[in-house]
Structures are given as C-alpha cells and as structure tokens.
C-alpha cells in the first residue's frame, strides 16, 4: 500500500492523537491501536499515512516547524531591530511550547534524544526553522547591531539550548509556570552579550565600571 504523504484533515487528526498518546503513555508503551482509538479511525487507516509507529512519531514536528517558519517569515520583515527579531523568535518558541505541553513533552523528551530522528525529513524542517535565527544573527552583525566577532551558530545554540532547558523543566517539574513571562528577560540576557561592548540592549551606553578605589584615602608612608 502506498503511503499518502499529502496533509489531510484525517492525517492531522491522527497526528494530534499520536501527540497526546505519546506524551501520556510514552513512545514504547503506546500502540498504534491507542492512537487509532483516540483519533476514531481504524489501525489500517493509520497505516495509509504512516509506515510504522516510529514513522508516526518522526512525522510529528514537521508541520509544526514549517508553520513556525512561515509565521516568523511573515512577521520578521516588519520588525526593525535585530534584537527585537530575536525577541520575536524567542516568543514564538516559548509561547508555542506553553500552549502545547504534549508537543513539548514528545519533542524534547522523546524525539530529541533519538538519533534516528536526525535522518528524517521532519528533522530538516526543524533545521530550516533554526536557520531563521541564524540569518537574523548574521544580518544583525552586518548591520553593526551585534558584535562582528560572534559565532552565529554558537549564539543560536545558546538561545535554543536555554529555551529547551526552560521547557523541559516545565514539563518535568511544572516550573517555571509562565514561559512567556521569560521572553523579555531571556532576550535581554542574550542580546546583552552579543551587542557591541559599551552598549545596552535598548541602545543606551553602558556606564563605565565603578572605580572601587574612588573616595578611599591612599595610605602613605608611615
């Protein structure tokens, strides 16, 4: 039987059910029948779209990453500051994870540690989404808003790694309760480290380091 690759309402229904089942039961304990029952379809219907349970798992992030990339590409051209473009990227990720806890659980606790996922088409979609951030960082460097000596890939990794750490803590421990509340402090922390030295994220000049010896009487020879 040929696998149907095209997205359809039924395929989306199956993916939504799989996301919930995998998040609740874990990948190894979940079955195709569990997914079919929740999606209100037969096991055979699932195999019309996915070749195996693993194929179903690996298909979950593809459409999500594509939509995230499309949303950012529509919004970013209207944001002037590259620091605020990063802020939009951080908001896009944290707000999505906040509103989709089952996806967060599956993506970060089940998919990310799986080496086979890196060989899938969905992984390429996830990489394309992360390249949006790489482009923002590089463009900010060219524009002089960010330091010219940065490694864009290292900055990207720092941003995504921090986001994922915060989300995993929320999934496992329930803290922080509000991920979106961390958008500004996280963005300011990152931007503060990549702007030219002597400037603040808001464009103001940094105050010079305080001279701790000022005002102290100097000891002379006794």
Can you describe this structure in just a few lines?
The protein has helices at 9-25, 32-39, 43-49, 53-75, 82-99, 101-111, 121-142, 152-173, 183-194. The protein is mostly helical and 222 residues long.
Under the CATH scheme, which class of the largest domain? Mainly Alpha
| Mean pLDDT across every amino acid position | 88
What is the domain total for the residues? Answer: 2
What class, by secondary structure content?
mainly alpha
Q: From the 3D structure, determine the CATH topology of the largest domain.
A: Tetracycline Repressor, domain 2
First-last Cα distance = 97 Å
Primary descriptors:
222 residues; disordered C terminus; mainly alpha; Arc Repressor Mutant, subunit A; Tetracycline Repressor, domain 2; 9 helices
Would you kindly provide a written description of the structure presented here, covering whatever features stand out?
This protein has two domains: 1-51, Arc Repressor Mutant, subunit A (Orthogonal Bundle); 58-194, Tetracycline Repressor, domain 2 (Orthogonal Bundle), CATH 1.10.357.10. It has 222 residues and is mostly helical. The protein has helices at 9-25, 32-39, 43-49, 53-75, 82-99, 101-111, 121-142, 152-173, 183-194. It is built from nine helices and no strands.
């Amino acid at each position: 039987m040929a696998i149907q690759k095209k997205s359809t309402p039924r395929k989306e229904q199956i993916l939504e059910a799989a996301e919930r089942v995998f998040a609740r039961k874990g990948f190894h304990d979940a079955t195709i029948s569990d997914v079919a029952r929740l999606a209100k379809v037969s096991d055979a219907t699932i195999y019309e779209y996915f070749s195996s349970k693993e194929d179903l798992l690996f298909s979950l992030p593809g459409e999500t990453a594509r939509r995230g990339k499309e949303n950012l590409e529509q919004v970013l051209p209207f944001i002037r500051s590259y620091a605020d473009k990063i802020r939009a990227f951080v908001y896009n990720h944290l707000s999505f994870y906040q509103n989709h806890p089952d996806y967060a659980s599956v993506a970060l606790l089940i998919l990310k540690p799986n080496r086979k996922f890196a060989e899938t088409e969905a992984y390429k979609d996830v990489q394309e989404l992360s390249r949006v951030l790489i482009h923002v960082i590089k463009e900010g460097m060219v524009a002089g808003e960010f330091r010219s000596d940065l490694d864009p890939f290292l900055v990207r990794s720092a941003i995504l790694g921090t986001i994922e750490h915060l989300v995993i803590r929320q999934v496992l421990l329930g803290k922080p309760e509000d991920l979106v509340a961390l958008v500004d402090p996280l963005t300011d922390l990152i931007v503060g480290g990549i702007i030219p030295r002597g400037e603040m994220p808001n464009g103001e000049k940094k105050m010079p380091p305080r001279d701790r010896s000022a005002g102290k009487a100097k000891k002379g020879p006794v």
